[in-house]
Amino acid sequence: MNNYNSESKKAAEFIDHEEIMDTLKYAEANKADLETIRKILARAADCKGLSYREAALLLECEDREIHSEIFKLAKQIKERFYGNRIVMFAPLYLSNYCINGCKYCPYHGQNKHINRKKLTQEQIRSEVIALQDMGHKRLALEAGEHPLINPIEYILESIETIYSIKHKNGAIRRVNVNIAATTVENYKKLKDAGIGTYILFQETYNKNAYEDLHPSGPKGDYAYHTEAMDRAMEAGIDDVGCGVLFGLNLYKYDFVGILMHAKHLEDTFGCGPHTISVPRVRPADDVDPETFDNGVPDEVFKRIIAILRITVPYTGIIMSTRETEAMRGEAVKLGVSQISGGSRTSVGGYVEEEKVEDNSSQFDVSDRRTLGEVVDWLIDLGHVPSFCTACYREGRTGDRFMSLVKSGQIANICQPNALMTLKEYLEDYASEETRLKGLTLIEERLETIPNAKVKTLVKGHLKDMENGKRDFRF
Ligand code: SF4
Ligand code: SF4
After folding, report:
1. Burial, 147: exposed, middle or buried (Cβ in 10 Å; 0-12, 13-18, 19+)?
2. Could you say which of 48, 176, 391, 406 would form a disulfide bridge with 396 (CB–CB 3.0 to 4.6 Å)?
């Protein structure tokens, strides 16, 4: 029986298995109906988003011309909302102690040969200084679930340490947090600590597959995990980041699942997820991706990204260094709006790159370039690498942020902030070659700021930066 109710607080009702299966059947039955599909695409061009059913139909369609139209539209929507800026971030692993049994992650509690590490506050300081010296301003904190070794107090103290470090011109201005599902009380503490986005990946929305993949530990409770974003929002965290680990389960199922989750948050709290992440399973210690036989081919993966861009135009899409340079290059054109750069996925990896025998990393990185190389590459591709963290510092979170995006005004804010934070990066961290290329790009893009007053202000701030001033924002 179909119990679907997008506004229910129960996971089994806002992610309804039968509704997902019906959606997939509808998509399969109608995938050759090009007239309907073209109508959906025409409506999507209004940038008001699509339903999960319409998105599933676009994903099922096998027509190559339609695929090209989807890519073209995704690109247009991305440029309209976010201009051509790409926001940069880095993960910071605090601890890989974990009591869960996730079959796809080397930190699982049963893995006895991984090197377990937990950073002290002093070690966090050193990692943050290393990250600041690369030029990063925005971090995603990562920690395994271990109530005794990684209690909430440890996470809160670590956030305080990170925000307190000002090394040379460096500063971490936004700390996003990716820790296990927790209580409303703990989410309130995270909110009070000044976090940016609370990120939690669902891994898969299929309850049976989920339970099979999480045979032990608290994460095995599907409902508690799936309802975590509701508790976070109840606690006042406006910006939440969803994601699935593509490859664990049938991608079509999880694609519909994540869109249903987004709809649930929108219908219940008036604001969908701030971001959606699109990781695919990667090799790691004690994890063989071959055991997950749902791998998503590159061509399909690109369509998933493009259709997400069209379906939830107001949501940022994040891609990590799990993907190769080539895939990331495609993805930033199709809708990805945030990427990590220079990432180390081991605990303590920024101070000392991990030796192979020291295995403490969560997954193998595909894109091993430094942040400087990634920035240089983005400039060559015509994108503006952005170190902006302005919105949450200006109180533009949750529905305030969404209304700004929906009105299209965000482009007027993103572009100036991207240019000013890129300039900061170029002044403080870039190689001479990148600096010159970046300055030319800034000059060109300045002219595309529509508002004359804003343009004049930006020009003034860019000058001030040459005289040592920092941290301007709109
Ligand atoms: Fe622990 Fe998270 Fe890894 Fe699961 S995915 S084993 S919860 S660190
Ligand atoms: Fe993100 Fe807001 Fe900065 Fe744009 S202006 S990059 S949306 S923080």
Report:
1. exposed
2. 391
Residue-number span of the structural domain to which 137 is assigned: 80-391
Cα angle 333, 336, 342; round to 5: 100
Same domain, residue pair 173 and 30: no
Which pLDDT value is given to residue 1?
A: 64
Print the SS3 string covering 137-196.
CEEEEEECCCCCCCCHHHHHHHHHHHHHCCCCCCCCCEEEEECCCCCHHHHHHHHHCCCC
Choose the final residue of a domain: 42, 75, 108.
75
Q: Counting atoms of ligand 2 from 1, which one is nearest the CA of 386? A: 6
Residue 411, pLDDT above cutoff 80: no
Q: Cα(335) to centroid of ligand 1, in Å?
A: 28
- Entry pTM: 0.96
At which of 50, 75, 100 does a domain end? 75
Q: Could you tell me the distance, in angstroms and rounded to a whole number, from the CA of residue 41 to the centre of ligand 2? A: 27
For the CA of 396, the nearest atom of ligand 2: 2
390 lines ligand 2 (CB under 6 A): yes
Distance 114 CA to ligand 1 centre (A): 13
